[in-house]
Amino acid sequence: MALISFVVPAFRVQGYLRECLDSILGQPETDIEVIAVDDCSPDASGDIIDEYAARDQRVHSVRLSENVGLGPARNIGLDRAVGEYVWFLDGDDWLAPECLTEVAERLRVTRPDVLLVDHVRTHWNDTATRSAMAEVFPESPGPGTFRLRDRPQAMHLLHTAWNRLVRREFLADLGLRFAPGWYEDVSFSYPVLMAAHRIGVLDRVCVNYRQRRAGAITRTRGDRHFEVFPQWHRVFHLMDSWGSATEALRPAVFERMIWHYLTVLGNGQRIAPELREAFFAQITADYERWLPAGGYPVPDGVEGIKHKLVASGRWRTFSALRAASRVRDAARRRARTARRTVGPVARRGARLTRDGLLREYYRAELRRPVDPTLAVYAAYWYRGYSCNPAAIYEVARRLAPGVRGVWVVRRDRVDTVPAGVEYVVAGTPAYYRVLARARWLINNVNFPDFVRKRPAQVHVQTHHGTPVKVMGLDQQRYPIGAGRMDFAGLLRRVDRWDYSVSANSFSTQMWDRAYPATYTTLEVGYPRNDRLVTASPDEVRRLRAEFGLDPDEQVVLYAPTHREHLPGYRPPFDPDRFVQALGDSGRLLMRSHYFHDRDRRPGQPRDWERVRDVSGHQRVEDLYLVADVLVTDYSSAMFDYAVLDRPIVLYTPDWEAYRLARGVYFDVTAEPPGAVASTFADLLDLFRTDGVRSDAATKAREHFRARFCTLDDGRAAERVVRQVFLGEPGERSTRC
């Protein structure tokens, strides 16, 4: 029997579930089990649970055939638990490192019925807010245990299931279960405290309570918030059935009920304006129904006034006071904003630059109708015709001939646009006109901040790689790698997305957490990889001939990634020594990251006959097709090249430094697509001994392909076009 059974329900938490499970399984205390319950989640949460269960015997997967909700899912996990204590942890929260050592020690020493632990609210912008622990217990509560009647202030700690561990036998004897519906914690957490004989408090932060930007119940408007009332009714019915044992606690519980109701009502993101009066009326009804005979401790100040208005049912007065408070707060915000912007506004108004005139032209174009036949394409900050947008453009010309596609390119990249492809040059009036009036905007990065999302426009974010390094909001935890990134601006750009194209389930999971917003995910594979699937042997032979490569030569493509945190960094790679290791029939193609437009060579080889810099080649898919082997480090190139099922070598001389400074989503050296070399000498040995094609390397590539390449069937672009342009039902689309 384990000391602690973690029950982790999972529903639409694929972007966060790995962090949750890792935070549990990575603790020094190992006397645990994890019952992870997939509540028929429409995303990949269930697959993630199965993955963890397959590699760690402490994890038990439970897959439900229908969605039952958080409370019943917890009950199902509880029924399977065998631990002495049960800890209900939500799938989007996570434990603080090494907290379990102290938790386990307290449990073993004091044997409480309930152990309350501290938490922090961790916000999407990487800030944290402390709990009420310090206010509730100004002095450390110490290791002793108590009953709630001796320290009723414990009820002022957040009433959730995840900030308390409960002795399983005590819970079974009590017969307490989670009720269905929203706010299910209420009818569990308060009764548990009231019934416990031994309550302990550990004033150590153990749980990171994630405050999600999108998708959380607390940020969802609707009438389901009325479900808070029956949850509190259940609490009082239980107290009635328990009789005198809890009668002394009734005033304090009543005060918590009214406080909670007012908290829900006061949150503008929960109760819509048209429902507020009815919600207030229900508060008044419950006030009259459950008011203790001897009264209760009414709060002081403004909160006390709210309680009195509830007691008398004075909705108009309550609403007027709230409106006045909001007007006052808004005025203060406007005053602060005006003080910050008056200088810059005055300076901007002093002169109209050419850019300013063009922006005025753009705003004028925004008032004209959207062109229902126009689609605008762009890639890599207007570097030319390439990547996923190019693949979508080509299929759209065939399947949606009524759509006119126009590309945006930089002036210095005009010569890279294929013949017959219509384009506009960035920064020209035509550029602003098509951005303002296009029905569709397709890009593998974000359009500039000035671009406005019109109601009739559809933004398609195709991305340009499966992420190894952390992206988006996750970069906040790695400030060295993030540089001066404007995360608020990033979110404004993300909010323009209607669709996010995903290459695989793993990417979908990471995009969910890195870019939280209300777009629709198209998990269809990467359109640019369609060509890798459909290319014929004749096309490969033709491409090799165009590159001057003989059929019997072994061609290696070396494509390292960019290090944002190390400007000018070049991996320790000697092209001449490398081609010597390849032998007489070896050729090396070197491609630097697209950020290095003006400094492309990753080395300075002497043997230019056998080494070629292909950084300027527009279509990287051509390079994949002609290469027999790929050598890379942490680049997304490995995921694309794996589609070809050819050998891949990871050359990772700075893995630990990169992982710590830049941040990564998974350890590519532990789950590689092939052989791994951490030094240049090791890399040379792999090619001298043909270790790149060893059985171990082949098996690693098979596992990698099974995880990341299952959607690459040559039809990804078609799936995007059919759903986005033609409005056909999607095969693999999920709403975030």
UniProtKB/TrEMBL annotation:
Keywords, alphabetical: Cell membrane, Membrane, Teichoic acid biosynthesis, Transferase
Compartment list: Cell membrane
Coiled coil: none
InterPro entries cross-referenced by the UniProt entry: Glycerophosphate_synth (IPR007554), Glyco_trans_2-like (IPR001173), Nucleotide-diphossugar_trans (IPR029044), TagF_C (IPR043148), TagF_N (IPR043149), Teichoic_Acid_Biosynth (IPR051612)
Domain Glycosyltransferase 2-like: 5-174
A Pfam family hit: Glyphos_transf
Signal peptide: none
Keyword match Cell membrane: yes
Membrane topology per record: Peripheral membrane protein
Similarity section: Belongs to the CDP-glycerol glycerophosphotransferase family.
PANTHER family noted in UniProt: TEICHOIC ACID GLYCEROL-PHOSPHATE PRIMASE (PTHR37316), TEICHOIC ACID GLYCEROL-PHOSPHATE TRANSFERASE (PTHR37316:SF3)
Protein name: Glycosyltransferase EpsJ
Lineage of the species this protein comes from: Bacteria, Bacillati, Actinomycetota, Actinomycetes, Micromonosporales
